[in-house]
Amino acid sequence: MSLLIKGGRVLDPANGVDAVEDLLIQDGKIACLGKGLEAPDGTPVIAAAGKVVCPGFIDIHVHLREPGYEYKETVATGTKAAAAGGFTAVACMANTNPVNDNRSVTDYILAKARSEGFVRVYPIGAVTRGLEGKELAELAELAEAGCVAYSDDGHPIMNSALLRRAMEYTLPFGLPIISHAEDAHLVQGGVMNEGVVSTELGLGGRPATAEEVMVARDCCLAELTGAHVHIAHLSTAGAVRLVKEAKARGIRVTAEVTPHHLLLTEEAVRGYDPNTKMNPPLRTKRDQEALLEALADGTIDCIATDHAPHALSEKEGDFDGAAAGIVGLETAASVLLDRLVRPGLLSLKILVERLTAGPARALNLPGGSLAPGVDADVTILDPARELTIDPAGFHSKSRNTPFGGWRVTGMPWMTLIGGRVAMWERVIKGGIHS
Amino acid sequence: MGWMRKDLLTMQELEPAEIGLILDTAASMKEIAGREIKKVPTLRGRTVVNLFYEASTRTRTSFEIAGKWLSADVVNWSAAGSSAAKGETLLDTAKNIEAMSPDVVVVRHGASGAAQLLARALECAVVNAGDGAHEHPTQALLDLLTIRDKKGHLEGLSVAIVGDIAHSRVARSNIHGMKKLGMTVTVAGPPTLIPPFVQELGVKVCHRLEEAIADVDVVMMLRLQQERMTSGLIPSLREYARYWGLTRASLSAARQDVLIMHPGPVNRGIELAPEVADGPYSVILDQVANGVAVRMAVLYLLAGARAQA
């Protein structure tokens, strides 16, 4: 697969590149970068003037739901949504049915990805058997099968001794443990952030403290064991402070933030829209500001969507009874470009870093770079395109987004994986399987 | 002024003048209760559906009597043994009921926001008869009517609401209504039963019963749900009753003209000693009587006045 991308603004933060240049792809790899490149005869040329050419986006927190919950999402539909959203790789969480706590499930996910996937898929294995927080899963075999990290996402591990053992046991494999940091007891009965809005709405609260005590514990255990802990969906100012302190003390901790925690607050829950329900919950303006600052200064390593598809029937009723979580793959780039980059709250360079090199570093994944010789995973943005977010047009099986109807400027225009066009102008062209 | 809303969902959204309109309308309805033939033709040919997902005797009966005295056809639909038990969702049930063309749906549901959900989905009027820990506007309205009857006015009065504020829709509706009408509200209870940041709703917080009731015009005691102990919010009923139960002894701290209220049902001997519940300061049965008048007013304004306009 060869391709010449001409005249775009090439933005490759990992390699310090930010210039209008041409990018030549040959045999599925990045060949070279330069001005006025000529392609060999017959090489397709993509005119990218006015576009931004970046390394492929990587989302390290996605629920593909397969096996077991194919009515919400499948490897095929979830990776199609990823390609549509400008992502060239996703890491998928273990809370499937059966749980990805053994190599058969990992093998199944990878086989599905090979045969039906549209982007690269990196499975995340469970830390504990059945996500029950009682016994370790077969962690060595999960690593061998191809898992890139471990997580009981959605089911915080309350037993600190067990988590310590998991960290110690997995040290030789070099895979991080991803922590969904919420104390299960402190959040019991809670469906939104605990604060004045939960008091007014009469909804049970999940206090910021529930996240912070767990982040503190996770950092302490990482210090004790020398393990790498990655904090999923950081959402409070206090948790940001804890991660910052831990990093300063040399503890191996990384962290991610979601677009919804950056862009929405608990105020969005007024009206009881179940599409504003997720764990951890939407927080306050003060938390939002701390998250943005931490994203800019590098305390937060990357943006991850926590793409959590749910069927309409799970999201149309009352708030207490609704499933927690929202989809994010197909909206992330547009809402972040429009609400953070366009008003000047975050530079485009940092946004792209946190969607490319940042996540690659956090989970030691390939990609996130346009250096010559690497696989040509490329995301091209059209920063000027105006659109209205329309959930009915999603490639995902699910529509549970709070961003429906938003008018935004900026969208992913093309997704290339290994030099092949996976998405162009919002149309899916083919997958890694084709 | 006239009534403009399709639904009655919260006290928080009402203007003071709207509250006044409901109270004045209710006051004019009270006379019907004293008649020998308790029936006026106002809502003849109109249908009111009581859609109750939680056990309720007082509120459901109150709405039923209110509708019947106004000559509406009142249908009771309760969750037990119905399609809800077979897995039908709230929204589906409500749409099925709407297909039978009711004029008003009165809903009680354990989930906060359930009434809003229905109001958005249904074209008929929706009355919130209690949604989770959120609001119970007709209870606040009947409380306000009772206080106004007894005190002659509302503005400037002070009220202590005592007990499980955190889980109480009655407290929330009263806080909003009373603040709008220029009353002073103190909430009191053990800190585990006071919701976070409640001060931001404009109330004072107090952690001692005697202090809370010392200098107020009205003491409103809330029902303590028995399950609060198993969730670790209070150590025992015995201890709660000892420190937070209103007894004749603790009442000695209160004013001579204090009103004692309770939304019911009363845990006699826990939050209210029997001699206080039945004592001279208690207006609990006035509240129940006023409940019918307030619900007549609400049904009239939503189904009668609006249709005639």
Task: Report on the architecture of this protein.
The complex is a heterodimer of chains A (434) and B (309). Chain A contains 12 helices and 19 strands. Chain A has 434 residues and is α/β, with parallel strands linked by helices. Chain A folds into 2 domains: 3-53 and 374-428, Urease, subunit C, domain 1; 56-362, Alpha-Beta Barrel (TIM Barrel). In chain A, strands 1, 2, 3, 4, 5, 16, 17, 18 and 19 form a 9-stranded mixed sheet that branches. Chain A has an 8-stranded parallel sheet with strand order 6-7-8-9-10-13-14-15. Chain A has a two-stranded parallel ribbon with strand order 11-12. In chain A, β18 and β19 (427-428) form a beta hairpin. The longest helix of chain A has 18 residues, at 208-225. The radius of gyration of chain A is 20 Å and the shape is globular. Chain B is of the alpha/beta class and 309 residues long. Chain B folds into 2 domains: 16-135 and 288-308, Aspartate/ornithine carbamoyltransferase (Rossmann fold, 3-Layer(aba) Sandwich); 137-285, Rossmann fold (3-Layer(aba) Sandwich). Chain B has 11 helices and 9 strands. Chain B has a 5-stranded parallel sheet with strand order 7-6-5-8-9. A 4-stranded parallel sheet of chain B has the order 2-1-3-4, with helices on both faces. In chain B, α1 (16-33) crosses α5 and α1 crosses α11 (284-308). Chain B is globular, with a radius of gyration of 19 Å. The interface between A and B is medium-sized, with 21 and 26 residues.
